[in-house]
Design goal:
Number of helices: 13
Structural class: mainly alpha
Helix content: over 70%
Number of strands: 0
Oligomer: single chain
Radius of gyration: 21 Å
Distance between the termini: 26 Å
Order of helices and strands: HHHHHHHHHHHHH
Length: about 425
């Protein structure tokens, strides 16, 4: 037992006061992303089943859904303490999954359900993960985030490895619909971990913990965003993240639909991409993310992702084939999850509590999916004009170059704000 404790202290970059919070955060993200990655290959296959030409419409439907949900989420955040509104959000998604399981099992309107499910998973992914990272930004300081967010992200990566394995092994013998049951179980485990995390943080011995409501207006997110150049910059960064991811996703959908036939084969390819990304990301998060963030700062770490897109889109402009698309998809997602996303989450640690939950959710959810819808229609329009995949990739190069410049500017601003922001740490 003593030997295990020593190994744990070496493996987890946390102080004794932070250790419980770091481990429960790891477990929370593990369960959350295991559930999502059971669903993701099914979502990608259903996107093709619903027709690749409908994908811009599905991105638009996702954005409209998120736009309607944003003030409801804002009202929930304003009225309930964190310990209550986080379980409410996840239990709502569990009920939705049960309804989808019933519809898919009974075979009711399969094409329509496939399209609705694609939209739902896109909404679920952003809301569920945005709630998690808002929680993390609320708990940890900028300095702690640089040390711990890589390790905490590794929990999600480990869950992201388990999810595709479950899908690869069970999708054919059990059928895709029954995979939703596994996702439900993982979501309930995430709720349990969130509850334990609340109990492990900031509770002086012998006292009851009373987490104050965040308060404010349900519609406060937009004014918060508009009056802060820093938040506007982070919003632009997330929009450009969507530009790269949406453009590549639509290129992938068209290339895979043309080159790979059969729902089972397509689902296995998508699950295999997830598995490769997970292995690379986990190794990086465990051995390198924290050190890279501390040494080079958030600007360089966030800029690693647009740098990958610059190289990848240049390669696609020259050789727009299946192998190039799949390699770029693996590398950009690896760099995003392992390096750029922890840096982006550290951006939010220097904000106030209301901004961390409301403005952050507006950026991570509404702006991200609104950008998905916008860039989906842009992709569809340039294809209608006759541009091929190689030409589209070439046109994307100056955009991702601007994204790289923005990353450096945000990193400098975050470091300046962190130097003058003091936030109580978990366990202090």
């Amino acid at each position: 037992m003593i030997g295990f404790q020593r190994w744990l202290r070496r493996a987890v970059p946390a102080t004794p006061a932070e250790l419980a919070a770091a481990l429960w955060s790891f477990a929370y993200f593990f369960a959350l992303l295991a559930g999502y990655y059971v669903l993701r290959p099914l979502r990608d296959q259903m996107g093709i089943a619903g027709g690749v030409r409908t994908l811009p419409w599905l991105f638009t439907a996702t954005f409209v859904t998120l736009l309607a949900a944003q003030p409801l989420y804002g009202a929930l955040v304003a009225r309930l303490p964190r310990a209550r509104f986080i379980p409410v959000v996840y239990h709502f998604f569990v009920v939705n999954l049960a309804v989808f399981w019933l519809l898919l099992t009974l075979g009711i309107a399969p094409v329509l359900v496939a399209r609705v499910f694609f939209v739902w998973v896109s909404v679920f992914n952003l809301f569920a993960v945005a709630v998690f990272w808002s929680f993390m930004a609320d708990l940890f300081t900028s300095e702690q985030g640089k040390r711990l967010f890589g390790f905490i992200g590794a929990g999600g990566t480990a869950g992201g490895l388990l999810g595709p394995l479950i899908t690869i092994v069970l999708s054919v013998p059990l059928g895709p619909a029954n995979l939703l049951i596994a996702a439900i179980v993982f979501l309930e485990l995430a709720v349990f971990c969130a509850h334990r995390l609340e109990r492990s943080v900031g509770v002086p011995q012998g006292r009851q913990r009373s987490e104050p409501r965040i308060g404010g207006s349900a519609f406060a997110a937009l004014p918060e965003l508009m009056r802060s150049p820093y938040l506007l910059g982070v919003g632009a960064w997330v929009s450009l993240l969507s530009f790269g991811a949406t453009t590549l996703y639509l290129i992938q959908a068209h290339v895979v639909a043309a080159a790979v036939h059969g729902a089972g084969a397509q689902t296995r390819i998508f699950a295999s991409i997830d598995l490769a990304v997970g292995l690379l990301t986990l190794a990086t998060q465990v051995f390198a993310t924290g050190q890279l963030l501390k040494r080079f700062g958030t600007g360089v770490a966030a800029g690693a992702l647009p740098a990958v897109y610059i190289v990848g889109f240049a390669a696609l402009a020259l050789t727009p084939g299946l192998i190039v698309v799949l390699v770029l998809q693996v590398v950009q997602r690896w760099m995003n999850f392992a390096i750029a996303n922890p840096a982006r989450q550290v951006f939010f640690t220097v904000l106030g509590r209301e901004e961390k939950y409301k403005a952050k959710n507006l950026i991570d959810v509404v702006i991200y999916r609104g950008s998905d819808a916008l860039y989906g229609w842009v992709f569809d329009s340039v294809q209608a004009l006759g541009l091929k995949i190689g030409a589209i990739a070439l046109c994307a190069l100056p955009v991702v170059a601007g994204w790289l410049v923005l990353s450096a500017a945000l990193g400098r601003t975050q470091e300046r704000r962190a130097a003058r922001v003091a936030v109580p740490a978990p366990g202090e």
